[in-house]
Write a structure and sequence with these properties.
The chain has about 240 residues and is an alpha/beta fold. It folds into two domains: about 110 residues, Rossmann fold (3-Layer(aba) Sandwich), CATH 3.40.50.1860; about 100 residues, Rossmann fold (3-Layer(aba) Sandwich), CATH 3.40.50. The chain has ten helices and eight strands. The strands form two sheets. Strands 2-1-3-4 form a four-stranded parallel β-sheet, with helices on both faces. Helix 1 crosses helix 10. The longest helix is centred in the first third of the chain and has 16 residues. The chain is globular. The C terminus is likely disordered.
């Protein structure tokens, strides 16, 4: 059976390594193609909102993936949920938002959820996704956002230790929650420290996204350390 071509659409290079690691761990047979358009993240900060132009650019990137024989598209940019939603009815192949699988898993495991983000525009986007998923599932969780200032800048400058430490420090401040969710692919390396400091389970996006993408495509050659199930808390 021919391995499926999965196009990953990134708005920051920082998301590439975490999702590549997740594919290597759970679905090494997949053909992974990276599309990086990192002006999107810069423009999102400068504009202060998700503009019509940015939404159109996401649709252009999606059509390019389809024209390049993609079997499915996985977005890794968590701050652009509304733009991705607009692509779904226009694209015939499976298309997955970055946080969909993690959010659905979190809703089955907790009623009070902390969401940590290092890119501030991600917060309103992922909070809206939680509300929508909760309405679909009939659940009513309390979701509490936490922004980690300086962490993304540290990571972009090559200071992974500083990035992970900042996230872990914020995780230690989480109060009265059952579970922590990381809002971005680039945060994955801090999961162990965050769990240790907070004493709470930590869910990350890349592993859940890869496993859900496989389920959507129903590939026969899937190899998973989780026996094909969505992962529990990442440590």
């Amino acid at each position: 059976m021919k391995a499926p071509r999965i196009f990953l659409i990134h708005a920051t290079a920082l998301a590439i390594d975490p999702i590549a690691t997740a594919f290597a761990r759970h679905w090494p047979q997949a053909q992974v193609i990276n599309l990086l358009e990192d002006s999107l993240s810069r423009d999102r900060v400068e504009e202060g909102e998700l503009t019509a132009s940015m939404k159109a650019r996401f649709l252009t990137l999606s059509h390019y993936a389809v024209q390049s024989a993609a079997d499915a598209i996985l977005f890794t940019c968590s701050a652009f949920g509304d733009a991705i939603d607009l692509c779904k009815p226009e694209i015939a192949i499976p298309l997955l938002k970055p946080n969909e699988a993690m959010i659905n898993l979190a809703l089955t495991q907790a009623s009070r959820i902390a969401v940590l983000a290092t890119f501030e525009p991600t917060i309103p986007s992922i909070m809206a996704e939680f509300r929508q998923a909760a309405e679909r599932s009939g659940r009513a969780p309390e979701v509490v956002p936490y922004f980690v200032p300086g962490a993304m800048q540290a990571l972009s400058e090559g200071d992974k230790e500083g990035h992970d430490h900042a996230i872990a420090q914020m995780a230690a401040q989480v109060d009265a929650c059952d579970l922590i969710c990381f809002a971005q692919f680039s945060m994955t390396s801090a999961a162990g420290q965050a769990q240790a400091r907070s004493g709470l389970p930590v869910l990350t996006t890349p592993d859940s996204a890869v496993l859900e993408m496989h389920r959507m495509l129903q590939a026969d050659d899937f190899i998973s350390s989780q026996d094909g199930c969505l992962p529990h808390a990442q440590v």
